[in-house]
Design goal:
ten-stranded mixed beta sheet; 363 residues; binds pyridoxal-5'-phosphate; alpha/beta; elongated; 9 helices
């Protein structure tokens, strides 16, 4: 029965603080609007319609997806402009993309090779549709993407295939998250944006129409989108932020909207209270290193260095022992990975849970 005090919720529970969520959405929307750059948030961080709807209401031009399930879910909500920032490889994804094109379109996919493009081209032309795509470019992350020097040749090869239409270029400047200090990170973010703009220029010079120059990450969200010539940004994690983003200097602890609520279950081991949440309740994926499973909120001196599946090991040094039954809130290292572990979350205002929101399109 909602609203209810946090004390009445089951533990562990996934919480999202509404004041922080609203501030994060408004701040990113305002920074992009001021710069005249379109914002297309990545939905993998929340997978929650109540969150995505708020991002769209704040001016996002559309949304970015990483999976077919996310695309299908958002099409079900009538979102007309989606970018699937992954390669639609294999017969099921090809069939799905062609199905969306037959069913009103609105989906742009990402490609980085003629080999991956060919089956999509064949299926699209057999169905009599044209699938729009962006060419993914590697600006340093070295995951997907053509190297800049190969972009013109690859774009020409893909654009020559029937049933496909080049709309622009895309990069994910994820490599900048490894940089230790914020000024270096921001310089690397701007350099990635500059490289993508150069590639867009080379494609235009080769005769292509390039309307989209798309960059995207939360650590890069203060630098990469604001390079002249970039048309849109796709940050995702900013909507909640997390422990990794604190370490990268993208946010402060008071901007982290996602927490896991847990209870102290045992204090038998002095200095090491055991809580009822472990690695099945939050992603310990510490991209920015620095270790630990998560950050303990509002408990100075208490750390969260290790966990089993349903048991978390806090360290309180034995100085300020946490009593059995006490509630603790933990900021996960990685918000997106944590989201994928839960089927629903509680939206919280102050110390009251006010709504229960579904999390959709998980594996
Ligand atoms: C292709 C792509 N775009 C955008 C993003 C959003 O980046 P972040 O999670 O840092 O906000 C990601 C995240 O992994 C991504 O893979």
């Amino acid at each position: 029965m909602l609203p209810t005090p946090l004390d009445a919720l089951p533990t562990p529970s996934l919480l999202v603080d509404l004041d922080r969520l609203e501030r994060n959405i408004a701040a990113m929307a305002s920074a992009f609007a001021t710069a005249g750059v379109a914002l297309r948030p990545h939905v993998k961080t929340s997978k929650c319609w109540e969150v995505a709807r708020r991002q769209l209401d704040a001016g996002a031009i559309g949304l970015t997806c990483s999976t077919a399930a996310e695309v299908a879910w958002l099409r079900g909500h009538g979102v007309a402009d989606l970018l699937w920032a992954h390669i639609p490889i294999g017969p099921r994804k090809v069939e799905f993309v062609v199905g969306t094109a037959l069913d009103g379109g609105g989906l742009t996919v990402s490609l980085d090779s003629v080999e991956a493009a060919r089956p999509l081209s064949e299926a699209a032309s057999a169905a009599g549709v044209t699938v729009p795509f962006v060419l993914e470019v590697n600006t340093g992350h070295a995951r997907l993407g053509v190297d800049p020097a190969d972009a013109v040749a690859t774009a020409a090869g893909i654009a020559a295939l029937p049933g496909l239409r080049l709309r622009g270029v895309l990069t994910h400047e994820g490599h900048i998250s490894a940089l230790a200090d914020r000024p270096s990170l921001e310089r690397a973010g701007a350099a990635a944006g500059g490289l993508l703009v150069e590639v867009a220029g080379a494609l235009r010079a080769a005769g292509h129409h390039v309307e989209i120059v798309s960059v995207g990450s939360t650590p890069g969200a203060t630098s990469t989108p604001f390079v002249s010539g970039v048309t849109e940004g796709r940050p995702g994690t900013y909507v909640y932020y997390d422990g990794n983003q604190i370490r990268m200097g993208s946010c402060g602890p008071d901007q982290c909207a996602q927490t896991v609520l847990a209870r102290v279950a045992s204090v038998r081991r002095v200095g090491r209270p055991i809580i009822d949440a472990g690695v099945k309740a939050m992603s310990s994926d510490a991209i920015a290193a620095a270790g630990g499973v998560g950050l303990v909120v509002d408990r100075p001196g208490v750390t969260f260095p290790e966990a089993n599946e349903e048991h978390g090991f806090l360290h309180d040094g034995g100085t300020v022992p946490l009593p059995v039954g006490d509630l603790v809130r933990l900021v996960p290292n990685h918000a997106c990975g944590t989201t994928n572990m839960w089927s629903h979350l509680y939206a919280v205002r102050g110390d009251q849970a006010v709504e229960r929101w579904e999390i959709s399109a998980r594996y």
